[in-house]
Each structure stands twice: as C-alpha cells, then as structure tokens.
Amino acid sequence: MTPSSNGRIVRQYLRRPFPGGGGLMTTPLLLLAAAFLLILANGFFVAAEFGLVTVDRPDAERAAAEGDRRARTVVEALRELSFQLSGTQLGITITSLVVGMLAEPAFAQLLAGPLTATGLPAGAVPGVGIVIGMLLASAVQMVVGELVPKNWAVSRPLQVARFVAGPQARFATLLRPVIIALNTLANRLVRLFGVEPTDELASARTPGELVSLARHSAEAGTLEQDTADLFVRTLSLAGLTAQHVMTPRVKVSALHSSATAEDVLNLTRATGLSRFPVYRDRIDEVIGMVHLKDALAVPAHERLRTPAGTIAVAPLLVPETLPVELLLRRLRHEQPIAVVVDEYGGTAGVVTLEDIIEELVGEVRDEHDAEGSDRPELSPATGEDGRPAWDAEGSCRIPTLRRIGLEPPEGPYETVAGLVADLLGRIPAPGDLAELPGWRISVHRVGHYRAERVRFTRTADPLPDPAVRGGLPKASGQDTPDAAAHALLEAAR
C-alpha cells in the first residue's frame, strides 16, 4: 500500500461524522497531535544516529569503567554500530512515512474552510490544502525532527548517546529480523556495483582516539608520561610535511660556490655543523651539498685554492609538501640532509634526519651544539602583576600554543612569528603589543624582519579543553626538550 493510498484512506476517515459532534475539527487535531508525537520519535532516531556516530569511544569506555550504566549501554551499542545505525534509519523511515500520512490530510481538512473563504474554486481546495499541508508538515519535520536533534547530538555526543542508547537498542532488538533482512537486500544491491560490503564499521581506532587513550592512561598512571608523549608525537608525524620539520632558510648556514675548503672548516667551527648547502649566485640556486670530511680530505696546502663547489655532491631536493614518512625514507636511503624547495622553486629550508628524530624524542644535543641552543621554544614565565605568562620563540608552531590554552584564529601562518605579523599587519618591532581573547602578546626581540621572542601573558582565565591542551605534539623546532615540555604541561594544568 503506497503513502498516497494511505492518505486517501485517512481523508475518507476524516469525512466521517465524529460521535458526539465536532468530528470535523476534533479528528484532524488528534491526528496532528499524533503526527507531532511521531516527529518527536523521528527526532529521537536522528539523535541516536548522530550521537552514536560522533561519540568519543574512549570517553564512553572511561565513563563505563567508572560505573556509569548508561555509558556501558553506549559501549555495547558501539560494538554493533552498523546494526544500530540500520535500526535508526528504519525508525526514521517509518516515522517519516506515517507523519506524512497523518499530517497532510489533517492540515488539508483544517485549511478547507479558510481556503474556501478566500474564493478559491471548490475543485481546487483539496489539492491546495494538501500542498500547504505537505509544506507545513515538512517544515516542522525538518526543524523539530531533523535539525534540532542533529545539532544537539553533534554538540553533546556522549550526553545524547547515554540518553538514546538504551531505547534504541531495545527498538533494534525488537525489529532485528526486519533489519537483518533489509541489510541483506542492501548488501546484494551493493554487490551489483562491484563493492563488497562489510557488516560492521571499521573497528580500528582513529589517531584522535589513540591520542586520547594515551593521555588518559598517563593521567591515570598506567602509562609513563614520557612514553605517552612519544606515542602522541609518533602519531602526529602522519600529519606533518617537510615544511613542518625543516630549518627555515633564514637560519640556514650555506656557502657560495666560490668559497673554499678552508671556508668549510671555518664555518664548521662557527656553527658546529658538518654539512652545508652550496649555491651558485643565491640561496635559491643550490648546486650541491658539502661535507666536513670532504674538506678535510683536501691537502692542507690546497684548501685555500679548492672551491667548495668542486668537492660538493649533488643535493637531495624535496618539495615542502612531502609527507614526513616519505621524507624519512629518502633521508635514510639517499642523503641524511635535504634541501626543501617551495612551490615557486626557491629554497624554503633544509631538513635532516636529526630534525625528524627530535620531532619524536625532543632535543638531541651533542658536544657540537652551541651553548644556549637548548632553550625551549615555549617556557613558563611571570607576567605583569604576577599573571601567568609564557615566552615563545618566533619559530614555535601554532599547535604548541594550544598546550597553554591559547587558541589563535585561523590564518595564513604556522608559527608565532607569523601570528604576530598577521595581528600587527606589518613587520614587528621590539615592544609591539597585540591582543587575543584572554591574552596579551608582547614582542621582546626581533631579527631578520620577524619576531624572534614573544611573551604571551594571560589577562583572563580561559577554559580550554584539557583534551586539546594535553594531547598535542611537540613543535617542530630543534629546541624543545622533553623536560621543558613536561614542565609546561604541568604548569598549564
């Protein structure tokens, strides 16, 4: 039986006299009341669908472990998520069909009198009434039965999932044979398109869930903090590119092709580095990479007359968009240092194996590192009036700021220096001030036309999400040791 035939049956029923009089008005109102209850039921199924899909599984499991019975029901529903979602879709379909069957003719009956009073031809009144009834029913259905529960579930997934999981599970269990039959039919149709369906959604946890698990395990003491940090940083590598871990060109030590082998030795003494890019006319024209051992291999009396370009080897060039996992593979199998090239063909910076290792384990120092190079990119300080403050290097990446509860606006920048320049709208100068909600930003040192040292002072008491504050990876620079990161996290808590 089709919805249109159902509608005709309801319209015929509406024409029957209601016992005791008043049937022409009372019956449509009762049907509209029933339709509204079905719209609420539709909203329940929509909330169940979005709540179960968006809920954070680790949060639900943690609440269940603490004795929350409703959370345990949520966890059980998540174990057969595909089946539960099919149940919500069946509920949405049934309620939507019945709402249309009841509401449209009821609206048409109620609107018949007003439409006739407007002078509309008698033959057109039923059709116009049905159209208006359909529009009104659809509007109420969309707002009350779809958008409101969807937005509620997306905003508070765990709260909604706890509320709906029990009733939804009972509904799905009651109609299990019907749901299984419909799923079987759907799977057969999907196979016609060459796609092999799966009975359940992927059970593997997302990187975000794994980060959340590591963070909560560290807080509970079941996982060492250092191990948790290493785990989080390892997961973060998947989203990083060469641009995120490289040393920017303004900090690159390089040699002109006319420099000598003796210049290589002198630059090594000055910087503690052993490999340098060699360029032709400008840093954007890198023609090779020279190593300290190649300069030492030149006889001492020949070093002043041997150009660095003649002892350099062909450079490894990589795009700045190259994912870190692919970059690591090339650095291991080709050269331990690469020149990062931007989209315009210029030199964006250089990257080494050590840069990637430090992204995982923090600052790696040796006897050749310059004194003071282990200063953290973000360190606690004391602001005016004793307010909490943090000093940040200009190269400190934006995700690191979220550890202290600071959420910068989206913009065309990736570092603190870029954030400051964007807020000021010009090249910064020492003493410049800027503001973000709850924070005052002061520029302490400038170099190479960019902010090199910036202080962030808290002017209010923000309420950052602890999940955001604690589960982010270390910044990509070469100066952040684990100890400072741990101290910073403790201070932020």
Structure description:
The chain is of the alpha+beta class. It folds into 4 domains: 189 residues, no CATH class; 33 residues, no CATH class; 118 residues, CBS-domain (Roll); 115 residues, Uridine Diphospho-n-acetylenolpyruvylglucosamine Reductase, domain 3, CATH 3.30.465. The chain is 54% helix and 13% strand. It contains 20 helices and 12 strands. It has a 5-stranded antiparallel beta sheet. Strand 2, helix 12 and strand 3 form a beta-alpha-beta unit. The longest helix has 37 residues. The C terminus is likely disordered.
List keywords for this structure.
493 residues, 5-stranded antiparallel sheet, alpha+beta, CBS-domain, 20 helices, 4 domains
Topology, pairings included?
Blueprint: H1 3-14, H2 23-54, H3 57-65, H4 69-79, H5 81-117, H6 125-155, H7 157-174, H8 176-191, H9 207-220, H10 225-236, H11 242-245, E1 247-248, E2 255-256, H12 261-271, E3 275-279, E4 286-291, H13 292-296, H14 308-311, E5 317-319, H15 324-333, E6 337-341, E7 347-352, H16 353-361, E8 378-382, E9 388-393, H17 398-401, H18 416-424, E10 433-436, E11 439-447, E12 450-458, H19 466-470, H20 482-492
Parallel strand pairs: 2-3, 5-6
Antiparallel strand pairs: 1-7, 3-4, 6-7, 8-9, 9-12, 10-11, 11-12
